[in-house]
Amino acid sequence: MNNDLPISIIIFGASGDLTQRKLIPSFLNLSRKGRLPKNFSIIGFGATVFTDEQFRDHLQNGAKQFAGFNFTNEEWESFAPHLFYQQGRYDQVVDFQNLAKRLGDLETETTNRLYYMAIPPTLFPNIIEQLGATGQLHENGGWRRVVLEKPFGTNLASAEKLNLQVHKGLNENQIYRIDHYLGKETVQNILFTRFANTIFEPIWNRTYIDNVQITVAEKVGLEHRAGFYDGVGVLRDMFQNHLLQLLTLVAMEPPASFSASHLRNEKVKVLSAIKPMTPEQVSTNTVRAQYKGYRSEAQVNPNSTTPTYAALRLYVNNWRWKGVPFYLRSGKNLSEKQSQIIIQFKEPPLAMFPMQTMKPNMLVLYLQPDEGLHVRFEAKAPDTVAETRSVDMEFHYAQAFGQTAIPEAYERLLLDAIQGDASLFTRADEVETAWSLIDPILQTWETHQTPPLGIYRPGSWGPAEGYDLLARDGRRWLNEEARMMLES
Ligand code: BG6
Fold first, then answer.
1. The domain at 7-149 falls in which architecture?
2. Ligand 1 centre and the CA of 240: distance in Å?
C-alpha cells in the first residue's frame, strides 16, 4: 500500500471535544513538521450544523486553547484550507451517500482514506455498515483504515460482539484501536529502556525483582464527564486499557522485532499468563473505593457504587515472573497527577556493613509529569566508618532533549495510522484477553459486593485498604521515595 498518496481523513464526532482538543492540534503539528502527505483533506462529520468556515474557526479557537505548542497565524492559514465539514446523522444512509459524494468531489486522484471514530463505540457497527454500503471501504488502489476510540466494549461479551461486528466490514489489518497511553513517549521508552540496553534485561526477572508498582493517579475528578463515568468506573476507564498496557510493556519478553505482529504477540502472551481471578481472589487481591462526595456530583446516581479508585495485585504466571506481585492502582481526585512505574529490586542477601540500612534498589520510570527515569542505589556516606546512604542516577527528558521534545500522544498515533504501523494499537485478541481479566473482577464487585466499597478523601492517596493490600505482603507503595528522588 502506498502511504504517499493523497489522503482524506474523515472524523466522525467532529464537533466534539476530542477533535478540538487533541485531533486537530495533532494534525496541525504534523502538518507544520511536514509529516502529512502533501495533498491532504480533513473532513469533519457530525450532527452539529457548521459551514466549512465556522468549523475552521471553531477548530482554530480549540487549537489556540489546547495545543501544547505555539503556532503562527501563517501556519494556521496554510493548514485551514485543508479542513472541511459535512453535516450528517449516523443512522441515515442518505447522509453517508452525501459524504461519499463530497469525498468524490474533493479527491481528484487515487486517495487513501483514514476514518476516525471519535464517537461512542455503540455507533461503530452502524457507521462501518453504512460506509460499506456506500462503497467507502472499498480499496481501489488507495487504502481504507479505521481508527476506533476507546472504550472498546464494556465487558468481554460486548468486546467480542463489537469485534465480530467491525470485522464484518473490515479486515483486522484495517483496524486501529487506539489507546493513547501507547502514544506517550515515556511509555514507548519502557521498551527502549529494556531492549535498547543490555544492563537491565539480565536482572529483569523474579531472581532480582521483588515487586512492580504501577500507579496512574489523577488529581482531576469527573470534569464534565460524570454522565459517562458513572456507568463505567475506574476499572473499565483506566485498567482494562492503560494500566494493563503498561503492565504488558514491563513484563513482556523481548519481541523478535519492533513490528506490530511481533510486539502484539508478546503483549498477548503476558495477558494470557495472568489467571482471571475467582471471587475469593477478587476479595483479597482487589480494592475498590469511591471519593467522598462523589454521589452528590451532578449527573451521578445518588446511590451509585461506581468506584473511582481501584488497586489490584496481579501475578504473571510464567518463568520470568512467577511469584512477583504486580501492584496496579489508579484513581480520580487523588493528591496529584502522577503516572509512574516502580521496579523494586530484592534486598541484598547479607548486610555485611555494620551500619548498613537495608534499602532495596529501585528503578522508577516517571511517565508523567517530570518525565524521566531514576535508579536508586546505596553508597558509602563520606566521613563515616561504614554508613550507607541512598543516592540516585537520573535522566530527564527536559534536561536531555529540551522542553519541546515530547509531542502529544495522539500526534504519534495518528502518524502511525497514516503510515500503516499498528504496533502501538491494540489487536482484537489483545482487547479480549484484557477484558477476560477485568470481567471477573467487575462481576464479583457488582454481584457479591466484595470487597466492600471503600471511601477516600478527595486529595488523598486513596483509601486505607489500598495500603493494606501491600502491607499484608510486608510491602508498601513507594511513591513517597520516588518523589524524594525527584526532589533531591
Ligand atoms: C482517559 C480516561 O482514557 O485517560 C480519563 O477516559 C483519564 O478518565 C485519561 O482522565 C487520563 O489520561 P492522561 O493522558 O491525562 O493520563
1. 3-Layer(aba) Sandwich (3.40)
2. 12
Domain boundaries, the chain: 7-149, 182-411+428-487
The 10s digit of each residue's pLDDT in 325-335 is 999 999 999 99
Decide if 242 is catalytic.
yes
Residue type at position 418: I
Active-site residue (options: 138, 242, 262, 396): 242
Q: What grid cell was written down for 287?
A: 480494592
pLDDT tens digits, 133-159: 999 999 989 999 999 999 999 999 999
Residue bearing the CA closest to ligand 1, atom 2: 237
Helices 52-66 and 24-32 cross at an angle (nearest 10°) of 80
Please report the pLDDT score of residue 4 as a whole number: 82
Q: In what order do the strands lie in the sheet with 454-456?
A: 388-396, 372-380, 362-368, 338-345, 209-217, 325-331, 309-315, 286-291, 454-456
pLDDT at 166 over 90: yes
**Model confidence at 371: pLDDT above 70:** yes
Quote the pLDDT of residue 403: 66
* Residue carrying the nine cell digits 475469593: 280
Residue nearest atom 10 of ligand 1, based on CA coordinates: 218
Neighbours of 64 (CB within 10 A): 12
- Annotate 7-26 with b (16+ C-beta within 10 A) or e (fewer): bbbbbbbbbbebbbbbbbbb
CA distances from 262 to 266, 310, 463 (A): 6, 31, 39
Residues near 167 by beta carbon (within 8 Å), at least 6 away in sequence: 428
DSSP bridge pairs for 310: 288, 330
- The residue type found at 130 is Q
User: Quick check: 151 and 240 in contact, CB under 8 A?
Assistant: yes
Q: Whose CA is nearest to atom 15 of ligand 1?
A: 218
**CA 364 to CA 394: how far, in whole Å?**
9
Q: Phi and psi of 120, rounded to 5°? A: -60, 145
**Rounded mean pLDDT of the chain?**
94
Alpha helices in 386-426 (DSSP H): 397-401, 409-419
CATH of 182-411+428-487, one of 3.30.360.10, 3.30.420.40, 3.40.50.300, 3.30.70.2750: 3.30.360.10
Query: From ligand 1's centre to the CA of 131, what distance in Å?
Result: 29
Identity of the amino acid at 270: V
* Protein residues whose CB sits closer than 6 Å to any atom of ligand 1: 218, 237, 339
Only one residue has cell 566508618, namely: 385
Q: How far is the CA of 348 from the centre of ligand 1 (A)?
A: 38
Q: Cell numbers 485498604 correspond to what residue?
A: 465
